[in-house]
Specification:
By secondary structure, the chain is mostly helical. It has a domain of about 140 residues.
Length: about 325
């Protein structure tokens, strides 16, 4: 399949044969309800093979086509300044499609001395920079055979990603080294939690390792609990499930911070946390009623809040 071509020539051929499809999917993903499904079907059912003759087509080169297609469609969507709208869904689809490819297929192709192999290597290097997806560890090691842990950490901190972290940590065989890296990663990432993305990854990691006190201390710094990320909410649910001794204290603080923002959306969120608190106090009903009475008394002048609260407690 086009084996006599150089990498540059092979790139040009793929560009010529698949450009129309790439342009179509860059728009379909944005504007059609089933655009992502169409793209998945085209990739996984070898719809792209229709652009090649029977002599040119070889199924073993599918990983190259798949990676190249995701990269090109991403590039076209960025030019339309609309990529971020579908970034999460595209990453999820890319991860799904990659998981369906046997790592041995990619590994064997990487060992070939061919333009396809070279193009695959270029593609994998691009994937690591452009997408939030995780490649099999054996493939990563082909590109980073002697990567020092500290070097890996410094590179990872530039664009933290939970799945890449998980893959790296779980492949450390020495337990002492692993624990040290866990603590170091958490400590370094904590310094970056003023960035929204870093904070989300931070809470994924502390949830994964059940570092409840570390995460709890970070949550106490929250000024407006209305704007917690999905990862922070998951962490709070983990604390509740684990019956952490400080969870009630945290919920008390969140409730009062929300009420003091004086907006209906904040009041409703406060009531949501009150519902959680009531379940935690299920065996200590008098404590919850006492807290509710104190809350009503403290914010008795917040008539909109007390009205919302009375609607729930009737």
């Amino acid at each position: 399949m086009l084996l006599s071509l150089t990498v540059k020539e092979l790139n040009q051929v793929l560009e010529k044969k698949l450009r129309t499809s790439w342009e179509y999917f860059s728009k379909a993903i944005l504007y059609k309800k089933d655009g992502l499904d169409e793209f998945e079907s085209w990739l996984c059912n070898d719809g792209w093979s229709e652009a090649f003759t029977s002599k040119e087509y070889n199924k073993k080169y599918r990983p190259v086509i798949i990676i190249q297609s995701f990269r090109e469609v991403r590039s076209l969507m960025i030019k339309q300044q609309l990529y971020l709208i579908r970034k999460k869904q595209i990453d999820a689809l890319f991860h799904k499609v990659l998981q369906a490819i046997a790592p041995s297929t990619i590994e064997q192709l990487l060992k070939e001395n061919s333009s396809w192999s070279s193009l695959l290597k270029q593609g994998i290097a691009g994937v690591n920079k452009e997408f939030s997806v995780t490649l099999p560890i054996s493939i990563i090691q082909d590109f980073e055979p002697d990567l020092d842990n500290n070097v890996w950490l410094s590179q990872w901190l530039v664009k933290p990603h939970f799945q890449k972290y998980k893959l790296f940590i779980e492949n450390l065989t020495d337990e002492m080294t692993k624990q040290k890296m866990i603590e170091t990663c958490i400590a370094m990432l904590k310094k970056q939690t003023h960035h929204h993305h870093s904070k989300r990854v931070f809470f994924q990691i502390v949830s994964y390792h059940k570092k409840y006190d570390v995460g709890m201390n970070q949550l106490y710094l929250t000024i407006d609990p209305l704007h917690l990320s999905e990862e922070e909410e998951v962490f709070i649910n983990d604390l509740i499930a684990a019956q952490h001794p400080k969870i009630t204290s945290l919920l008390h603080q969140f409730i009062e911070r929300l009420v003091e923002k004086k907006s209906r959306t904040h009041y409703l969120k406060a009531i949501n946390y009150l519902t959680m608190l009531e379940k935690l106090y299920i065996t200590k009903e008098p404590f919850f009623q006492e807290y509710l009475t104190l809350l009503m008394k403290k914010y008795s002048r917040y008539t909109s809040f007390t009205k919302e609260l009375s609607n729930v407690t009737k």
